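Budget justification aside, the reviewers requested a transparent look at the raw inputs and outputs of the sequence design task funded under Objective 1. We therefore reproduce one unedited record. The lines immediately below are the structure tokens for a 277-residue chain.
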């Protein structure tokens, strides 16, 4: 079994994707289940985790609706306003209405100007509500956010969390530090997992298996196979390569860094982290 632990759908007419403009090139079109389903069949991917792409609860309800209609969507990572005074109530209502399909929440931290936003006391209630409802915190961050993220997770030891796209290292620029050191400290001090996803779009022209091996090796040194899970980041991956090309690269990279643990990364960790059935 292969589980794609990170993919997106969007529909332009919905109008809440502030980042999605004509300048996004081939991403500026609708991407819906009928577009992904043939790829899942071709590459024997059994299930996916559908992740938010707009900062709105309306989009989360849209995604949950797709999950009810399409059996391959095993879970949804949605969005709520973490700073709203009624954030805890909103999280409870979403979790209850989702009938088990809401698996996590993701504020779009990479787009927030304050690099220490995640530490604001006004977010405490939202994080505690996630713990209460068994939701995973998907951390969409850049290297500058890794240290504040560690501080936040230390406040909530029962919170399950995952680092999206390996924290977006500067692979294209070749600057493995300070990302590598911050990543190591985060992994040592918290129980956060890490998605093997988004690396092609961070790599620029440096996306061969050989180019990516030092970065992926650092991920496995920090997290081990038990805390690593694969995601396509489709359709964003289409800006750099095909679905199949990234899956093939990922399989080879996993075998290089964690021989014999490919099944764990391609399905086992996602099933346990997101409690997929």
């Amino acid at each position: 079994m292969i589980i794609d632990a990170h993919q997106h759908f969007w529909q332009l007419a919905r109008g809440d994707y502030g980042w999605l403009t004509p300048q996004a090139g081939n991403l500026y079109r609708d991407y819906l289940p009928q577009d992904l389903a043939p790829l899942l069949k071709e590459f024997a991917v059994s299930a996916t985790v559908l992740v938010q792409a707009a900062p709105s609860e309306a989009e989360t309800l849209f995604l949950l609706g797709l999950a009810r209609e399409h059996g391959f969507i095993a879970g949804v990572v949605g969005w709520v306003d973490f700073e709203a005074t009624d954030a805890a109530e909103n999280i409870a209502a979403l979790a209850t209405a989702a009938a088990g399909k809401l698996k996590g929440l993701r504020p779009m931290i990479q787009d927030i100007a304050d690099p220490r936003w995640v530490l604001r006391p006004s977010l405490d209630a939202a994080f505690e509500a996630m713990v209460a409802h068994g939701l995973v915190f998907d951390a969409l961050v850049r290297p500058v956010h890794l240290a504040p993220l560690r501080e936040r997770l230390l406040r909530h030891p029962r919170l399950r969390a995952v680092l999206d796209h390996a924290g977006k290292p500067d692979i294209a620029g070749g600057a493995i530090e300070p990302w590598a050191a911050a990543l190591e400290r985060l992994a040592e001090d918290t129980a956060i997992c890490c998605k093997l996803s988004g690396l092609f779009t961070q790599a620029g022209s440096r996306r061969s298996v050989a180019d990516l091996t030092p970065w992926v090796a650092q991920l496995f040194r920090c997290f081990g196979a038990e805390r690593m899970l694969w995601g396509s980041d489709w359709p964003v991956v289409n800006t750099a390569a095909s679905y199949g090309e990234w899956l093939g690269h990922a399989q080879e990279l996993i075998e290089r860094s964690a021989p014999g643990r490919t099944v764990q990364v391609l399905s086992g960790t996602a099933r346990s982290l997101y409690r997929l059935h």
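The chain has one domain: 2-273. Residues 209-223 form the longest helix (15 residues). Computational costs for records of this kind are itemized in the attached budget.
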